[in-house]
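Just scan my protein:

. . .
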Amino acid sequence: MFVADIKNLTIALLEDAIEQHGQLEGDVQEAAKRNVAYLAVACKLIDAHASVPELVSDIVASELSKIKAHSGSLPSDIFIYEEDYSQYVPKGRYTRSEALKRYFKTMLWYGRMTFLLEGGPQELIGEHDAKIQTLQAFLLATSLKNVELGRRSGLDVWNRLYAVTTFYAGPANELNPHDYLWAMKQELGNGFALNDLADEETLQAVRKKLDMVPSPRIHRDPDNIAADG
């Protein structure tokens, strides 16, 4: 069931990212392109027969090659910072079937690759790439809220998967989709266009809202901001 959920969610998010790329401009379009690559890698990890959009075929092939070779620490073609590709070796119960091996690699990819908010000379990435990665996270959070898988939203499926991983590994320390949705709702309200995030002042204002997210975080309902006090 979880394998089917992660596969179907990834496909839906990839299709939405491709659509976003065709509609957006500038840095927001670049963020959508990187999301296409990010999600296409996940699609290939969970399903070897999945097709890869021509737009990102070279980048995806490079990432998959490093994952397959367990190449050690190398710069990610998508995220720029170094990733330890030697980690992508299924362990324990995840070695029992090909489906479980693929599930392991896919969830590891999703779990290890982080969208960084901060960039600069002393950071893992530069300021521009940090901006792009922040935009990526906002776009993905929006997609999770909007895509549908049967009677469930993408966010419903994400919540279910996250609940299971939290049970086994504890809550994540990174910002989650609910945090990004909350920040956008607080600053932009309802009915905003994703291209609004191309405006530097608007993006910085939304990013500042993320600094208000408490730790430890709880899931926030962007449609019920009053509950947040």
Summary: The two ends are 37 Å apart (CA to CA).
